Amino acid sequence: MTRWVDAWRRANEDPEGFWGEAADGIHWERPFTRVLDRDATPSACWFVGGALNTCYNAVDRHVDAGHGDRVALVYDSAMRGVVERLSYADLRDETARFAGALTALGVGPGDRVLLYMPMVPQAVVAMLACARIGAVHSVVFGGFAARELATRIDDAQPKLVLWASCGLEPGRVVDYKPLLDEALALANHAPVNCVLLQREEAPATPVPGRDVDWMEVSRAAEPADCVPCEATDPLYILYTSGTTGKPKGVVRDHGGHAVALHWSLRNVYGMQPGDVFWAASDIGWVVGHSYIVYAPLLLGCTTILYEGKPVGTPDAGAFWRVVAEHGVHALFAAPTAFRAIKREDPGAERVRDHDLHALRTLFLAGERADPDTIAWAERALDVPVIDHWWQTETGWPIAANCMGIEPLPVKHGSPTVPVPGYKLAVLDDAGTLLPAGETGNIVLELPLPPGCLPTLWNDEAGFRSAYLDAYPGYYQTADAGYVDEDGYVFIMSRTDDIINVAGHRLSTGAMEEILAGHPDVAECAVIGVKDALKGQVPVGFAVLNAGVERDDATLCAELVARVRSELGPVAAFKQACVVARLPKTRSGKVLRGIMRRIADGEEYRFPATIEDPEVLPEIAGALGALGYPGDGS
Ligand code: COA
Ligand code: AMP
After folding, report:
1. What CA–CA distance (Å, rounded) separates 569 from 288?
2. pTM
3. pLDDT tens digit string along 597-616?
4. How do the domains of the chain map onto residue ranges?
5. Which of 73, 126, 472, 549 is most buried (most C-beta within 10 Å)?
6. Which atom belonging to ligand 1 lies closest to the Cα atom of 141?
7. Which fold has domain 502-625?
8. What is the Cα Rg of the chain in Å?
């Protein structure tokens, strides 16, 4: 067996050789002339001169290789009590037909197509259909509100919007039409058409001249062939929270993405063609793009598309039912999902109701995996539980215990070691390398491996300033942590205003912009505080304009409603308080870090630069009233 350290060294010392070999796992329409162009701007490019089709690699080639009968996708809806299976041949036919429909609607290579869709097979078909004809998809998570959707429509300027009439959440049907109507009213850009998928739970009334029916356009369409795409052409844009209200459009290319994901499923996740892989996420997130859709299909595995929750659909045994029923070999979930299951079934009784013999590994990512949850999952499932760390920007794991290379001993609290291709360093704020054990800014040496973002959509300057400018020669992850004496990585916190709520990445800056828009609010702060279930939840503080006399509870309810309607329910913004002042430095910087420490009951010291220490007991009092520990000074 290859040792991890050998693979990692080789990828560092000879990236051209390492990734050139990995590229053999992909079918190329035209071979690349250079594996890596280090001088490309704004960042290095992979597989220059090569042409391929990502959909061909994910779907058609498995049919051509005689695996047309293999199940490509299992749609399991705990919400509807429905299971559907699509073979690779079915998926090819449906994708080719929908690609034909997109072409008939005027979509061509490079055009953007935006999807606002729940976890239904048609969404996967649509993503692949875009890839088939060289169009660029951009999926927007269903839990975002109209304003967020509008921002993305304006940035991506899609020719078409593909939408479904509703999403299904426990206890409620989410009608998408009012959200889409409002988003299109807010947006400056108008798509040529919208394609509406009617769901029987809540059909929508189409808008004449705007909406065309999904089934009708598919039925009428001629199947479309795969077109060759340049390796460096964009495959998709995925918006993720940045440090302001404006989301960042992470771009993914065709060639590097296909090679990296295909390699990662085998080497990081230990999968083989024909295995069953289940990423219990949503297609609106990067985990969904990479490990529900592309990686399992690129390797010829069966992927599970699960419409449901870990608990309440109907109970805390939901995951075990899916694993048993579909013979899942590897499960990938957010630690929050396991905390939710553990809370309802602490003794893991429900695990015993199901035959989980196929399950080999559980992978956790998306937020810090707390050692208690890992230990519980290890006991409950009796399989290796692998914490691994990555970001929307990288698209695949930066640090992991590579199950397909050499499983290393697990250290709870660490996502283990850098994956081959990633050269990780820890720097202080001045950019000096820190020794083992010291916490600092985690950065990745350039060039990044294939599959990572080459730039931000229409925002090269933003790409440079967010990722490249702070530490020349490195990509800034905006995560802080350390590497221990054994080379194990520990991710401790973000260095920006991003918080992680139930594995969902959110910007407190975006929430502050919304609170600041309230006519009675003079200034505000939003911090992420510890939460036993969701890891973190946001809490807002508002200082009112002079002379405003309002009932605090009513005002806070308005702030909560505002974030829900402008950012979306996924923000889980449920707590706000009114305070007389915010703690600040003498230069006017709000001391959010100290506020968070007070909320979490951690010790804190008054910084020498604090403007007025007397404000801190007031903050502690407000947090105490919300049920947080209060003063740890
Ligand atoms: N469309 C519309 N609304 C959505 C939505 C979607 N796709 N996804 C979530 N929401 C809503 C929820 O209904 C909830 O609304 P509410 O405030 O009316 O209850 C809100 O957004 C918050 O959702 P969530 O954070 O998912 O919390 P929850 O209380 O509904 O469920 C868990 C708790 C733990 C079960 C859930 O957070 C979970 O499954 N987490 C795993 C997360 C995950 O897989 N992340 C992917 C990263 S790998
Ligand atoms: P996202 O872009 O939504 O995937 O979120 C990426 C961020 O989630 C990272 O920058 C980290 O802050 C956090 N994250 C993801 N995985 C882990 C992990 N295994 N441990 C700690 N933090 C993680």
Report:
1. 19
2. 0.96
3. 999 999 887 778 888 888 99
4. 88-227, 502-625
5. 126
6. 7
7. GMP Synthetase; Chain A, domain 3 (3.30.300)
8. 24
DSSP state of 454: S
Report whether residue 240 contacts ligand 2, using a CB cutoff of 6 Å. yes
Which token pair is 21? 């070999």
- Please name the residue whose Cα sits nearest to atom 38 of ligand 1: 337
Q: What is the pLDDT of residues 547-578, one digit of tens each?
A: 999 999 999 999 999 999 999 999 999 999 99
Q: Which of 18, 585, 84 is nearest to 325 (CA)?
A: 84
At residue 193, the 3 state secondary structure works out as strand
Nearest by Cα to 366 from 242, 296, 467, 279: 279
Does any ligand 1 atom lie closer than 6 A to the CB of residue 598?
Answer: no
Token pair for 216: 């009708």
Third-level CATH fold of 88-227: Rossmann fold (3.40.50)
CA of 346: how far to CAs of 280, 333, 377, 387, in Å? 20, 18, 10, 20
> Best substitution site from 367, 386, 444, 476 to test ligand 2's pocket, by max atoms within 8 Å of Cβ?
367
Percent of the chain with pLDDT over 90: 94
Cβ(305)–Cβ(76) under 8 Å? yes
Helix (H, G, I), strand (E, B) or coil at 456: strand
Ligand 1 pocket, residue 167 CB under 6 Å: yes
Question: Considering only CA atoms, which residue is closest to atom 5 of ligand 2?
Answer: 391
